[in-house]
Structure formats: structure tokens, C-alpha cells
Amino acid sequence: MNNVEIIEYQPEYQTSFERLNKAWLEMYFTLEPIDRYVLEQPEEAILKPGGIILLARYDGKIIGTVALKVIEPGVYEMTKMSVDQAYQGIGAGKKLCAAAIDRAKQINAKRLLLYTTSILETAISIYRKQGFVDVPLEPGVYERANVKMEYPLH
Questions:
Q1: Please, where are the H alpha helices in the chain?
Q2: pLDDT > 70: percent of the chain
Q3: Can you give the CATH number for the domain in which 86 is found?
């Protein structure tokens, strides 16, 4: 895990961001229109409104991603967390999740939410170990989401 470095998104990493997220989404689901927009235009969809994208780099290769997307002022959704299947198990997911939580604290976020699905057991385990707790899920945010979690920032 010590060899996994968390870095800030730069435009040259857009293809890695898109590739890594499409890989897991297409493995388990189908891409929704919102996924295509966010993955193909992350600067517009995430960064321009005030969000953050972090990447995991291992031996010079981008192997993982996570984003904090603005939902409303002070409320962020942790989204597009992905780790290349070939690098799963080395702690990159834990490090990305922890870095996203730290950034939410640094920017004085009031709430940090995430949406996932119960079939992603490893991801849910990481989220719970980092301190996320289950909260009621409102319908219609994502077709595939059946779990909503929140990190207690305050």
C-alpha cells in the first residue's frame, strides 16, 4: 500500500479515468447516460462545479480513481471509485477512500454521501471500515443503486 500514491487529476488522465470506471461499470451493469457524461467530460461534470478527482498511481501507472462531486453547496457525493482489477488487493481502494474523506474535511464539506449496490461487497466493506454508515435511499438517483451511505463529518 505504501507504493500507492494519491495524486490530483490532470486533463491528461481523462482517458485513464474513463477506462477504469467503464471497466467496472460494464462488468456489473450498463453505462447510464450520466456515467457517459461524467467519464467523457470530467472537467465539465465534476471539476468545473467545484468537485475534486483523485487518482491512485502505482509504479507510474494510474490504477484507480475517486471523485467528489458537488450535489449542492457543502454536500458532496463520493463517486467513480474504481481500481484496476489487476491491482485490487494492494490497498489502493482503501487509500483512495481515505484520501477522499480527508479532502472532504479539508474543504469543510457538511455532508459526504455515496451510492452503491449490494453486489459490490468489497467496496461496501471498505466504506464501512472507513466510517461510512447506511442511510435511507431515495429512489431515482441511479438505476443500479440500492445502497446509500454517509460519512459523519460533524
A1: 14-28, 33-40, 42, 92-106, 121-130
A2: 99
A3: 3.40.630.30
